[in-house]
Amino acid sequence: MRYQDIKWEDESEFEDEGKKAGKKQVDELSFAELLEQESVPEIEIRRGAQVSGVISAISATSDNVLVELDALHTAVMDKNQIFNEKGEQQYHIGDRITAYVVSYTADEIQLSMRLSASKQSFEDLLNARQMQLPVRGKVTGENKGGFEVTVMGKRAFCPVSQIDTRFVTNKAEFMGRELNFLIEKIEEGGRNILVSRAKLLRKEAELKIAELEERKNQGQEIILDGIVTELRDYGAFVDLGGFDGFLHVSEMSYARVNRASDFLQKGDNVRVKLQKIETTADGKRRISLSMKAIQEDPWATIGSKYEIGKSYSGTVTRLETFGAFVSLEPGVEGLVHISEMSWEKRIHHPNEILKVGDKVDVRIVDIQTGSQKLSLSLKNIEQDPWAAIDAKFPVGAKVKGTVESLKGFGAFVVLAPGVTGLVPTEILKKVHGESYKKKASPPQELEVVVRELNVAERKMLLSLPEIKDDADDIQAYHEYMQTQQDKAKKETAKTPRGSFGDILAASLEGKKK
Question: Is the pTM of this model over 0.70?
Answer without folding.
Answer: no
